[in-house]
Every structure is written in structure tokens, then in C-alpha cells.
Inverse folding.
């Protein structure tokens, strides 16, 4: 049995504005190292909300969240930022690259923030990640010179820079056409199989979900199915 | 490492909005420039106006006033002790203007460690004889060297030289107002009459102009020896002793001490010229108020630009936070931006301020009442530059504080989900 990278126990969350709406009810599940998991469900079923709780960015929830065996409750803003920096890689629907920096620098930013390696080493790592994603030729260009698919690949490289425990994706293919979606999926698959990278991807693309190792289906804030691989 | 990273991100954001940040920095530059030149100019004027009086006013002046005897004979009578005395008949005597034992007092003062210098003086009320009429006037008998040293007497002698006064017997430096009335030239002889009726011829060796017209119509200067000769008094006859101190603030206390020690009247400069300090401090206050107002306005400019930048960079802030930058890091980024604007703008402001005040200092400023001044006065006090620098940093920090705090509190979830 591989160790659990994420364990959620009885997570509930309500929005109180303007009226109290329960968006997550008693959600419990875990992800093991090296697993490629997708979360599917209709719009508004709470899958993104769950992802942001798991990512430590949203801290107003009930229940327990363990990341790498450490409880995330009662951690300070700065500590959570360090956890995100070190253990979680993010890929969003939109690439969120900083237009003031070139692609290589964009990839390097979380690595420099981590501060464990020298700038030279981080740069070397960033090049390697870009190479894995096949866009090392675009390293010195700026994000606005790239196509949508390329930008998303730079964003994935940025998520990988600190060799995170898990990569989280919120509709990472939502803005891409079929061809680019397939490219991104193949990259994720390669990461999971060759590099043993754990991935948790929220999507409403059922084709995409079907190809992952495990699919968690949500409805009305509850997990209704959590297929094994 | 971390500081370098934050500096790099700040620099990138500054560069992305270069024009606005330059406008903001220029606001700071402008306000610091005005602050420096305003204060330098105002302080220069203050010094000028103060010196107009202070240069020529002794810090402590010892003199005798014609006063009736404070103890009237009736008070000595044991019969009326405790009664109210209204019988006063002993009038002032005729020799009181002289400071008694002046030689010893001068010597004592010269050895006093608080005293920078002493200048004895004899004031003689006289009449200038002009044809058939007499003009009232005062001849000041002075020690020319002491007067030059302590009261920059030579600056006010507009024609002729002070040494001529010393070297020519029975000579006089005449106030320019009196000279014009009497139609005299340098080298002419004039006649004066003393209050006791004696006539005396004097040779005019120079004119002086104090800047105070009423004074120039009346006053003239001769050596102590000449005035003593006019009065027929011995060389110890002195009516005033003017004292300059090293530390002006000690004047009131020392005046009191000299008053009892030398048994003369003693007046200090603070009592004699109370209004000058008030005027100076109010002018200084006004310049500070204007300067600081300018800085605050510049601060609002910075506040605006940072706010705009934060709205524009909302996505970038969100992703920085999502990838592990804490609220404190984001705060530091925007504070760095604000302080960069403040430091660059402030530093330029200090340089331009120096330049502008130097420029003002070159503008000709000729006035009949100030013979020694040719251009506008500027005080290049480093204190103003220090205050300007400190204030530019404080205001930009405050202007950056609130937008930065807002940026640090941005919730990345709100931004990312809102897309």
C-alpha cells in the first residue's frame, strides 16, 4: 500500500451569503502517492470548492484535512503558503502566467520562492521541466507570444518546479480545443506513469475522466461514486 | 534570496506600469523640490531679517538710566516706618549716565568665559549745525575694532572706511540721511553743539546706512576718544557696555547677574527684541505646513497608482499566492514598489531642490535698506534635506501601506473561481 498524500475526513462547507447553502457535506476520501484521480460532477456540485479546500487556499471548512500526514487545521497564512509552495502544484483553467516575466522565469518563480536551491539550479530544473513538456524552445519567449496550449504547458511546468507531492488541476483543459486537451492529458498521464506523480484533476470532461486511473463523482456536495482503478 | 526575488517581482511590476510610476515619482520629486527650496529661501530670509537686528544688537547691554532715587529720605525716617510714603522730592542727579568703574567692568567681562566680546560705547546727544538751524542727532563713541568684530560695523559704512575714523582725529562717520540733509561730502567739516552748549568741529570721513531710515537721519559714529573730548570727560567715561555672548540663550540669566554685580541696568536681547523670534517661528511654521501639504498630495498620487496596479495585477497576485507566496510577501512587493517610487522621487527632489534654491540664490535682490545683500538669501541647511528625505519615505510608506495590505488580503480563490 502506497502512503496517502491527501486524506480528507468529513469535510463540510457552507456559504452564508446571502443565505446559508451547504455546498459540501461530509466528504471523505484519500489519494495515494502516484495515483491519477479525476473528480467529475455537474456545475455547482461543489467539486471546485472541494479542490480549493484540499489546496489549503480555502480555510473556512469543517472536518480534517491531512496533507502528507500533516493536519492543515489551525495553520497560519504563512505556513499554508509554504505548504502550497512545497507540496502542491497548480494548474488552472486559465494559465495565469505573469506577462512581465518570460516563460522560463515564470516556471522558476515558485522555485525561487522555495529557496532551497540556488537560482542557477532552479533555472536548470526549469529547463528540464520545459523539456519534459516539449517546449524548451519557447523558454525565453514571453507568455503572450505562445499559443493557448503552449501557455498551459508552461503552467504545468511551473506546477512541477518544486517536485510537488501532488498536482491539482481545476479544469486544466477547459479552455483548450480537443487536440490540445489530448496533449495535456498525455502529459498528465506520462507524469503519472513515468514520474510517479500524484494528480488530482477536477473536470467536467467525462472523456478525460474516463481515461484516468480513478474517478470520483460528486453530486450536491456529496461523493456518490469513487471508483477504484 | 527572498529579498532579491521580491525586488525582482516589484521591478517587473514597476516596469509594466512605467509611465504611471514615473508620474507618481515626479509628484514626489516636485513636492520635495518645492519643500527644500521653500524652506531654504524662507530660512534665508529669516536669517537676513534676524541678522538685520541681531548683528547690531548686543546680547546684553549695560547702561544707566536717569531714574529718581528708589529710596527717598522719608523712607529712612523711623517715625513713618510702615506708613504710605507720597512725599518724593529728591530728583535725579546729573552724573548718572556714566557707568561707574567702567574700566574694571570691561576687564571683568573680558575674562568671563561666556563672553565673546565687549564693546564700550558713549552716546552723546548733540545738534548738527546746518546754517541757521540745528538738527538733533546722536554721536556714538565706539571702539572701532570691537564694533567691526562684534557688530559688522564695516558692512554698513557705504562710503569711506572705518579705519579712517580711527586714524583721523576728531572725525565722524555720518548717517546717510543726515548727510543728505546737510549736503556734506566726505572730507567736509561740520559743526556740532552738545546739550551743554559747547561747539565742536568734526571732519566727515564716511557715511553709513543701517537700513533703518529714521536711524540714519540721526545717528553718527566717532571714536570713544573723540566723544570723550566733546564732552570734556576723562578716558574712562563710558555710557554703554555692549556684550556679545557665545550662547545667546544665556543672555537673560547673565543680564540679571550683571545687573546686581555691576550695579547698572542690564537688558538682554530676548527682552529687547521679543517680536523677532515670534515672526521667524511663524514663517518657519508656514513653510513646513506648505511643504508637508505638498508631500501629502504626492502621497495620494502614489496611493492611487498602487491601487490601480493592484486591480490590474489581481490575477498575478492570485497566482503568486496560489504558488506559495504568503500575504506578507505580497505586502512586501507592493511596499517595495511604493518605497522605490518614494526613494527615486525623493532623491531627485533633493537634487532639484538644491538646484532650484541655488537658482533663487542667484536672482538679484537690491534694496536700499540692505546694502550688503545683492541676491536673494538662501540657507543651505542640511537639516531641510534630511527632513525632506525622511518625509518622502514616510509619506510613500503610508501611501503604500493601505493598498499593500489590500493586496496581501486578496483571496486567490475568489479571483481564480471568478474567471
Amino acid at each position: 500500500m502506497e502512503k496517502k498524500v491527501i486524506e480528507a475526513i468529513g469535510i463540510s462547507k457552507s456559504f452564508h451569503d446571502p443565505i446559508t447553502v451547504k455546498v459540501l457535506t461530509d466528504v471523505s476520501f484519500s489519494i495515494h502517492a502516484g495515483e491519477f484521480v479525476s473528480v467529475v460532477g455537474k456545475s455547482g456540485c461543489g467539486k471546485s470548492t472541494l479542490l480549493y479546500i484540499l489546496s489549503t487556499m480555502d480555510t473556512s471548512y469543517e472536518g480534517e484535512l491531512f496533507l502528507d500526514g500533516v493536519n492543515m487545521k489551525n495553520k497560519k497564512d504563512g505556513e499554508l503558503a509554504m505548504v502550497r509552495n512545497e507540496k502542491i502544484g497548480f494548474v488552472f483553467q486559465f494559465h495565469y502566467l505573469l506577462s512581465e516575466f518570460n516563460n522560463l522565469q515564470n516556471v522558476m518563480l515558485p522555485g525561487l520562492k522555495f529557496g532551497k536551491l540556488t537560482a542557477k539550479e532552479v533555472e536548470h530544473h526549469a529547463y528540464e521541466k520545459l523539456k519534459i513538456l516539449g517546449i524548451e524552445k519557447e523558454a525565453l519567449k514571453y507568455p503572450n507570444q505562445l499559443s493557448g496550449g503552449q501557455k498551459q504547458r508552461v503552467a504545468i511546468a511551473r506546477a512541477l518546479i518544486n517536485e510537488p507531492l501532488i498536482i491539482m488541476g481545476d479544469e486544466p483543459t477547459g479552455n483548450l480545443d480537443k487536440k490540445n486537451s489530448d496533449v495535456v492529458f498525455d502529459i498528465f498521464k506520462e507524469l503519472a506513469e513515468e514520474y510517479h506523480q500524484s494528480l488530482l484533476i477536477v473536470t467536467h470532461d467525462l472523456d478525460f475522466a474516463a481515461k484516468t486511473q480513478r474517478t470520483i463523482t460528486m453530486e450536491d456536495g456529496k461523493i456518490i461514486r469513487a471508483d477504484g482503478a | 534570496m527572498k529579498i532579491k526575488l521580491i525586488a525582482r517581482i516589484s521591478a517587473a511590476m514597476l516596469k509594466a506600469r512605467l509611465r504611471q510610476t514615473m508620474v507618481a515619482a515626479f509628484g514626489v520629486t516636485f513636492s520635495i523640490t518645492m519643500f527644500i527650496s521653500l524652506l531654504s529661501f524662507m530660512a534665508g530670509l529669516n536669517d537676513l531679517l534676524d541678522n538685520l537686528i541681531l548683528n547690531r544688537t548686543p546680547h546684553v547691554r549695560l547702561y544707566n538710566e536717569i531714574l529718581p532715587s528708589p529710596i527717598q529720605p522719608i523712607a529712612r525716617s523711623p517715625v513713618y516706618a510702615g506708613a504710605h510714603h507720597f512725599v518724593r522730592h529728591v530728583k535725579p542727579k546729573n552724573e548718572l549716565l556714566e557707568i561707574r568703574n567702567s574700566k574694571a567692568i570691561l576687564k571683568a567681562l573680558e575674562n568671563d568665559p561666556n563672553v565673546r566680546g565687549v564693546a564700550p560705547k558713549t552716546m552723546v546727544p548733540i545738534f548738527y549745525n546746518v546754517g541757521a538751524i540745528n538738527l538733533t542727532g546722536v554721536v556714538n563713541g565706539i571702539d572701532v575694532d570691537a564694533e567691526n568684530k562684534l557688530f559688522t560695523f564695516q558692512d554698513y559704512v557705504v562710503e569711506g572706511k572705518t579705519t579712517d575714523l580711527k586714524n583721523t582725529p576728531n572725525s565722524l562717520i555720518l548717517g546717510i540721511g543726515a548727510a543728505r540733509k546737510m549736503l556734506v561730502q566726505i572730507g567736509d567739516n561740520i559743526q556740532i553743539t552738545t546739550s551743554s552748549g559747547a561747539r565742536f568741529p568734526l571732519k566727515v570721513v564716511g557715511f553709513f546706512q543701517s537700513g533703518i531710515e529714521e536711524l540714519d537721519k540721526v545717528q553718527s559714529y566717532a571714536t570713544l576718544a573723540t566723544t570723550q573730548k566733546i564732552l570734556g570727560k576723562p578716558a574712562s567715561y563710558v555710557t554703554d557696555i555692549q556684550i556679545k555672548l557665545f550662547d545667546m540663550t544665556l543672555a537673560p540669566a547673565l543680564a540679571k547677574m550683571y545687573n546686581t554685580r555691576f550695579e547698572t541696568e542690564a537688558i538682554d536681547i530676548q527682552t529687547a527684541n521679543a517680536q523677532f523670534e515670534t515672526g521667524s517661528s511663524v514663517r518657519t511654521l508656514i513653510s513646513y505646513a506648505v511643504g508637508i501639504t505638498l508631500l501629502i498630495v504626492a502621497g495620494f498620487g502614489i496611493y492611487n497608482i498602487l491601487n490601480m496596479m493592484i486591480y490590474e495585477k489581481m490575477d498575478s497576485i492570485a497566482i503568486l499566492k496560489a504558488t506559495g507566496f504568503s500575504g506578507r510577501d505580497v505586502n512586501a512587493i507592493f511596499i517595495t514598489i511604493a518605497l522605490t517610487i518614494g526613494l527615486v522621487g525623493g532623491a531627485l527632489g533633493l537634487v532639484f531642490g538644491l538646484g532650484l534654491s541655488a537658482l533663487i540664490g542667484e536672482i538679484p535682490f537690491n534694496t536700499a535698506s540692505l546694502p550688503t545683500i545683492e541676491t536673494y538669501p538662501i540657507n543651505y541647511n542640511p537639516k531641510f534635506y534630511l527632513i525632506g528625505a525622511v518625509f518622502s519615505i514616510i509619506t510613500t510608506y503610508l501611501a503604500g501601506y493601505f493598498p499593500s495590505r489590500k493586496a496581501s488580503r486578496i483571496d486567490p480563490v475568489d479571483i481564480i473561481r471568478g474567471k
